[in-house]
Each structure stands twice: as C-alpha cells, then as structure tokens.
Amino acid sequence: MNQRTPTLLYIDDDSALARLVDRGLTRRGYRVIHAASGEEGLERIRRAGAEGGIDVVALDQYMPGLDGLETLEQIMAIPDAPPVVFVTASQDSSIAVTALKAGAADYLVKDVQGDFIPLLHVAAEGALRQAELQRAREEAEAEVHASRDRYAALAAERELLLREVNHRVGNSLQIIASLLHLQASSAAQDEVKAALTNAMGRVAAVAQVHRRLYTSQDLKSVVLNQYLDSLLEDLRRSAEGNRMSRLTLKAEPIEIDPDRAVAVGIIVNELVMNAVKYAYPDGAGPIHVELISRGDDLLLSITDDGVGDNVKADPRSTGMGQRIVAAMASKLDASVERDPAHSGTRIVLKFQRVPPAPGKNNHAAAG
Prior knowledge:
- There is one protein chain.
- The chain is α/β, with parallel strands linked by helices.
- The chain has ten helices and twelve strands.
- It has helices at residues 15-26, 38-46, 48-51, 68-76, 93-102, 117-186, 190-215, 224-238, 258-278, 320-332; strands spanning 7-11, 31-35, 56-60, 84-88, 106-109, 222-223, 247-251, 255-256, 287-294, 297-304, 335-338, 345-352.
- Strands 2-1-3-4-5 form a five-stranded parallel beta sheet, with helices on both faces. The protein has a five-stranded mixed beta sheet with strand order 7-9-10-12-11, covered by helices on one side.
- Helix 6 (117-186) packs antiparallel against helix 7 (190-215).
- It is rod-shaped and about 115 Å long.
- The two termini are 80 Å apart.
C-alpha cells in the first residue's frame, strides 16, 4: 500500500519565499499549499475536510492583518487542528516561548534565501510524529475508558443477575420450608413431625443466606450477627408452644463468605434444635448463642442450662443431626468441643475468620 503524501500549509505573505518552500519540500515528498495571510490560512484549514486534509502548518509571524500569534491562537481553537510549526525572522527568544505556550509544536528562524527549508522539513516531520503519537495516546485512552465502561456495565449486569438468582433461590427455599412446616403440622407421628421440623430448619438456614445476599450491598459476604438474628427468629416462629421463648443471641458484626455462613447457620440450627428437644425435659429453658472473634479465630458457642450429661438417650434418634454438625464443621475447618466445666451443655466451635490455605486441614472431629 502506498503511503499518503503529507500536505503542508505554508502561511506567509512572502510569495517568493513560499515558492522556495514549495520546491524544497516537494522534493522531500510533501504536497505544499500556500496561504498569503492568516485569514486565508484559517479558511483553508476549516475547509480541509472538503478539499483534502492539512497534515501540518508552517506559520509565519509577521503578516498584514492577523499576525502569526493571532492566527496560531485561532488555529488552536479549531477542533482536530493540524500541528503548527511557528516560523519567524526574529531572533527574539521570547517569541518562541510565546508561540510554544500558545500551542505550536515547534519553532524555527527563517531567512529570505530559503536556507531554513531543511530545518522546516525536520520540524514538520517531528510535528507529524508528535501528532501521531498524540492521536495514538488519545485512542488508547479512549479504548481504556471504553473498556472500563464495558467492564462496569458487565459487573453491574452480573451483580443484578446474582441478586435475582439469590432472590429466586431464597424464595424457592422459603416455599420448601413452608411446605415442610405445613406437613409437619399435619403429621400424626411424633418422629415424622420432628424429622420434618428439622428439615424445615435446615432449609430455612440456607434460605436466610440467600435473602441476606439479595438485600445486601455486598454479594460476597454475609454479616453473621444479622444473619443469626434472622435465623433464630425463624426458629422461634417455627417452635411449638413457648419452648423457644428464652432463645438469646450475642454476636459481633463479623463478615464471612456465603458458603461458610450457610455452614454456620446449619450448625446453629442443629445444636439449638437439639437443646430444645433434650436440654429441658420438663419444659422450656434458656438457650444462648454467642459468636465472638479472638484474633484471627471465631468462636461460636451454643449453651443451655439443662440436664447436660444426664440426658436420656432417645431410642428414636438417628444421629443425623450429629453427622450434619460434623460435616459442616469440616466445611469450616472447625474444631468442635464440649465444655466440661459447664453444668448444662455448652458446645464450642473454633474456626478461622478467613479460610485456611488449601492443604492445611486443622479441624477436629465432632464430639
């Protein structure tokens, strides 16, 4: 592909010198257009779109009408104006400084014999390269801004989709929990009723996480004190009679990822329901849930003041709750211990606020 011949607009009222510039730069591969005044040069630049582009301008300082500096100021106000090489016969360096501050790409001193033409060629080449670099930089910046805008739009769309997914999943799980509650209410056998109620609590624990994510500004974390408060409120509403009236929560506003929040919620559900069934054979009693931070670790405890080790074994028990707690503790990489100093039952889980690195397995088996 042939490279396009660059066009230089030479603005100077000296027609003889303009012919010298034309001959000198034409030999060097330029197309030269002459304008005899600043007004004519400005008009030619403004018409450049229709009559062929102007790539670079050589602008004389002293001209009748608009002088070079006045013309330069108006050229710089034209959108996408070509670069300007300011040309003058004066040796006054302050003129160069003024021209460069006004936007000229370069500056040189001319002579009437045309000896400056090679320097004009070098200056024009430099101005063209500078303009090309500026265009490339502006295009790159525009592409960066466009990429950022596209990324922001995709991120916003992804967040909206995630919210919608969490909303639908949360609603679906809540419907399942409600159906299990209805089924449990109509069940004639106590073991069936208990199994359905337990299943309802497990489903509700997961549904609460999705509800939290749908209403939260942060889709990557769940605030545990708010989550556990809502979860325990669900347990109070689902409990028969008044057996949950003394269920209390003390928790710090700790944020963890949604998957681990689900594991925490299911553990709390299982241990609270276990305390409801076995801690107080003769009625209801206090059950305390506490979550605190200790350095990089989190301590979750479920405590009752009931019969403790004196609880009678239930022959109908399948051990499902204990297996679920052990599985969720493994997911959290948590240790699970019973506090031997407590007169009732106090189960303490200890796990790291941030998941340990892959390959580091520190959890202890559930007791």
